[in-house]
Fold:
Amino acid sequence: MEHTPTILAELEEYLKQNDLTLAQFAECSGVHQRTLNNWILKHRPVAIHQLDRITLAMGLPEGSFYERYIDHYIIERSPDWRRIEPVLYRCAELDKLEAIQRIVGHIMDKLLYSPKLFDAAEKLFAQGRHAAALLLFEGVAEAEKYQHSERLTICQYRMFTIQVGDDQNRNLRAATLFEPFVERLDEIDQLDALKDLANVYRSLRQWDKVDKTARIMKEKAKIQYSIKHQEKRKPREHEKKTRGPLFGYIAYADLLCAGVYEAQGDYQQALQYTYAYANLDWVKETDEDTRHWVNLFRHWAKANVIVNKLLSGDVSVLYEYLNYIDASSDTTQEDRVTQLLNIMITANRYQLDVNDILKQFETEIESFSHQPSLGDIYVQQVMPDYFAWFGYEMAYYYLHQGMYSDGFKHLMNASIKANILNNETYFINCMGLFVRFQAHAFPETKAGFFNLIEKVWLNNVKKNGTANRCE
Structure:
């Protein structure tokens, strides 16, 4: 095993090669000469910001000595939080995740460090350094797994939030692991957690889970709303608030339940829940933000009433839906893909010709290849699912219309999105559609699909450890 010189040995060699005295190097680096003397002669470690200056003065990349610093001054010594904390933050800034993992693994044998590590994780989480924060939350959760502490519960919530991403299988695991901890959260945090869980289950089409989660959220939100408006109740100082208006969790639960029944083909029940979140006359608040959300729910309800009629076979309301779309202001990309998806499902289900409609929205449809990457869990999870679904419906429509070039283009986009989402159902549907129409594909189109299939296969082989022999 090759011996790695210590940081001090490298510094001494650098001074020798460049014919520098310690005083000259101190002036060059901005680190006081006494500090350098104490480090060299008395083995008192420099702080991490001082090490950064030394590294810079030696002309080396940032963080070059971090691994050795962690070895000699953290792992080989008694843990000192005053030294450890700034190292964690600097490793997070430089994305040195393996270094963070080593530190966490070293100090988490002692529960004494759980509160400090948790506070550092919360700070990193607030800064958006989620990969680094996840390692800290995991360390705290592992150390406190038998403690049933509030910290453990919040760690589980943060870990769930961070881990939700493109891979739907991973999302299901994250949701399943987090769900038992929801009841341990503060009553207010429970509402946001339940909403996040419901949106993940919605993206996974786990309709029983969506229904159960939505109903629990609605009951808890009704209780909190009643408490909020109790007579003579004085608001507490620093009272915790939900991310959105409290009444919105009740209305959103009805919206979710409407979606469950719509997905199951029970359009009458879907309409009943839609009418429920359209009627918000019971809301007591009258401020501008409340009016905004009330109008938004009514706007969604108006659209979804028409959609339920469309999907149930009443195609006479198609142009009423188009008039609604045209009259809508401030339409987002998420709104548009949902609207057009509803039209395409109806067109394919009832064999409608919607070429004129697709021509009208041609530019926006082309933009759907650039999906939103930021936002809440709804935007992160539900919308990518809709983009993939929309691509499949477009491909199905064009291929059955004999418009093969457009059909295969949308089918390829949908297949790629399904693979990114790790959604086996969507991917199998896309491949089935390709097989059905492959006789109409140009050779280069066939080659593109076969290359994608082989890539997916090889990735699965690698992930699952299945036998494979590549010549």
Q: What stands out?
A: The mean pLDDT is 90. The longest helix spans residues 288-311. The CA atoms of residues 244 and 379 lie 15 Å apart.
